[in-house]
Design a protein that fits this description.
The complex is a heterodimer of chains A (302) and B (297).
Chain A lengths: L1 H8 L12 E10 L4 E11 L4 E6 L5 H8 L7 E6 L2 E2 L5 H4 L3 E4 L12 H11 L4 H15 L14 H13 L5 E5 L7 H16 L3 E5 L3 H7 L2 E6 L2 E6 L1 H6 L1 H6 L6 H8 L12 H17 L7
Parallel strand pairs in A: 3-8, 3-9, 6-7, 7-8
Antiparallel strand pairs in A: 1-2, 1-4, 4-5, 9-10
Helix pairs in contact in A: 4-5, 4-6
Chain B lengths: L1 H4 L11 H4 L2 H15 L5 H18 L2 H8 L2 H14 L9 E5 L2 E4 L3 H24 L2 H10 L4 H30 L10 H25 L18 H23 L13 H27 L2
Antiparallel strand pairs in B: 1-2
Helix pairs in contact in B: 3-7, 3-11, 4-7, 6-7, 6-12, 8-9, 9-10
Classes of the chains: A alpha/beta (302), B mainly alpha (297).
Chain lengths: 302, 297
């Protein structure tokens, strides 16, 4: 079974079309030390090419859930199928060809003598041939704008660049599912912009992107589906627009919608406007309304 | 998963009787144990000390981590005993016990081997119990009451406090590298996992020194402590009993010429033979397993 799967998927971990990217059925996870329940029955299905955000307070189970995806943790009970493969039968190294995991702190993964070597480490581990390595590295260097740093030691470059190297070192493995843990923490505007662009491009290429983040504007901008976690369970699963507009849900999970959405909710929405996710949306809404006020005096009467 | 890697030498939080004993009283016992262990050659006394320390573990609720920490004794014990049987650290003539191929086994050094092992076991167990039941800050506060130099005191406390931090760090780094498909645990895993740990450690120390200096580390004057360490009457009792008991035993032992009872303990030849087989076998197995791990890719 797993042999034929590898044969059809090849080294890049490209999935068979018939399987879901992620299929989690009633997953529970209890940490062995101290019997802390981290996941209390999670069901989740993600299709290929979806771009998914996971939000929730610290300790709600987000990280535990994502660690189940690549087998870093095996569920205490329940089933995790990734591209149709049961993670409980696979090692993390085997899953690495399917699921890329970008850790929050790039310092935890960088070690090589040069950024070029760093970018080659992952794909080499999953058996990508040497001539293809160069091509993948060249593409990543181009996309992430790392040309000037390629021969530098990863610890010599600034933190935002290091973060990009960390992400690029996973992207060169071309996993069919890519998990980002807090990609925008401590990043400057330019890096955040590159990360946004990357997520969109990956989705366009058919990669499933899963992003754990507290950065609501980032999610509002790129993500099409948000799951909200609270106390080890998924309590909501909808579009960012619906999730951010749900004031009760936001309050219950102690989360804050993007400021733009909050402004929209307190201004245009009660008057029949849209729940805006980006400044552009709100601006468009307001400008139609301003034009509208000129013709309908009733709205200025208040 | 990260706990697998962890070295079990950090504090285990708890509120047992042992946890509540004042750190100074515990230090009295640890120092006393070390003094006694190295001033006696009485195996009964040494293993009695080890047993007493071990019995404290269930009271403190740290039996499992203690046993994990005591695993380090397996290679120590097996190599120590095996070597004493092949090459006794006592004067000749040696009594020949058996032959295994070219190896000649002797029983004479075994008593001394057990003494050495007893010293290691008793001191290690007592020290582990103390470390596992004492908050590093409390130790710090207590030591500064003893007028131990501030910088030295801080070094000690910081070392203990950083252990759990690095344990967590190593766990995360291993997860990150495994997620990148890093194979094996041998030489192939050394660079990817150790470079980030060391770089992280150096960065952390740099940050720590900056933050210390910005908070006036090394300035003169009276220092207060956030954590209050109370000295209760029971702590005095435990400390004084420990000091008296251990000091008495040290004195008795030295007066009796290290109190060796080697003449009372006679090891049957068959015991020496099988002990050697088990000890040497265990040690060889450990070496072999390490080599296999190291070269497996």
């Amino acid at each position: 079974m797993s042999n034929s799967a590898t044969a059809t998927q090849g080294v890049t971990g490209q999935p068979r079309a018939s399987e879901r990217a992620v299929d989690i059925r009633d997953a529970h996870y209890v940490y062995p030390t101290g019997n802390v329940v981290a996941l209390g029955g999670v069901d989740l299905r993600v299709e290929h090419g979806e771009i998914l955000g996971i939000i929730g307070q610290n300790g709600s189970g987000k990280t535990t859930l994502t660690k189940l995806f690549n087998g870093l943790l095996k569920p205490t009970s329940g089933k995790i199928l990734i591209n149709g493969i049961d993670t409980s039968t696979q090692t993390v190294q085997q899953m690495a060809a399917h699921v890329g995991y970008v850790f929050q702190n790039p310092n935890h993964q960088l070690f090589a003598r040069s950024i070029e070597e760093e970018l080659k480490f992952g794909p080499r581990n999953i058996g990508v041939p040497e001539d293809e390595l160069d091509e993948r590295v060249a593409q990543a260097v181009e996309f992430f704008g790392l040309k000037d740093y390629i021969a530098e030691h990863p610890y010599r470059v600034s933190f935002p660049i290091r973060k990009l190297v960390g992400i690029a070192s996973i992207v060169t493995m071309r996993p069919s599912i890519l998990i980002f843990d807090e990609p925008s923490t401590g990043q400057d505007h330019n890096t955040t912009h590159i990360i946004n662009g990357l997520m969109r491009r990956l989705r366009d290429e058919g990669t499933t992107v899963i992003c754990v983040s507290h950065d609501m504007p980032l999610l509002a901008d790129v993500v099409k589906r948000v799951i909200v976690m609270k106390d080890t369970r998924i309590i909501a699963d909808a579009s960012p627009r619906e999730v951010f507009a749900d004031k009760a849900l936001m309050a219950r999970t102690n989360l804050q919608a993007p400021q733009i959405t909050e402004i929209a909710l307190n201004t245009v929405v009660p008057r029949g406007g849209h729940v805006a996710l980006t400044p552009e949306e709100l601006a468009a809404d307001i400008s139609t309304r301003i034009r509208g006020t000129a013709v309908t005096p009733s709205s200025t009467a208040r | 998963m990260s706990m697998q890697m962890a070295l079990p030498i950090a504090m285990i939080p708890g509120n047992s009787v042992i946890h509540r004993i004042n750190p100074l009283a515990k230090i009295v016992w640890v120092v006393g144990y070390i003094a006694l262990a190295f001033s006696t050659q009485n195996v009964f006394l040494l293993y009695g000390m080890a047993l007493f320390a071990f019995l404290l573990a269930p009271i403190a609720g740290v039996t499992k981590p203690l046993l994990k920490g005591a695993l380090i004794l397996v290679p120590v014990a097996s190599s120590l005993l095996a070597i004493q049987i092949i090459a006794p650290a006592v004067e000749k003539p040696w009594t020949h016990v058996a032959d295994i191929g070219v190896l000649q086994l002797y029983g004479d050094g075994l008593y001394y081997g057990f003494v050495l092992l007893g010293r290691v076991v008793s001191c290690l167990l007592m020290a582990l119990i103390m470390v596992m039941t004492t908050h590093p800050s409390d130790l710090f506060t207590s030591l500064s009451k003893l007028k131990i130099p501030y910088a030295f005191n801080f070094m000690l406390a910081m070392t203990l406090q950083l252990i759990p931090v690095f344990q967590r760090e190593v766990g995360i780094i291993m997860s990150a590298q495994k997620s990148r498909g890093m194979k094996g645990r041998g030489f192939a895993a050394v660079l990817p996992s150790f470079v980030p740990v060391f770089v992280g450690a150096i960065e952390r120390v740099q940050q720590l020194s900056i933050s210390l200096e910005s908070r006036g580390f090394g300035s003169n004057g009276f220092k207060t402590s956030y954590r209050q360490v109370k000295v209760r009457p029971s702590d005095w009792v435990i400390g004084i009993i420990g000091a008296l008991l251990l000091a008495t035993l040290v004195t008795v032992s030295i007066m009796r010429g290290l109190w060796s009872v080697s003449s009372l303990v006679v090891f049957p030849h068959i015991f020496v033979f099988w002990l050697f087989i088990v000890a040497a076998g265990t040690f060889a197995a450990i070496i072999l397993a390490t080599l296999i791990y190291a070269f497996k890719k």
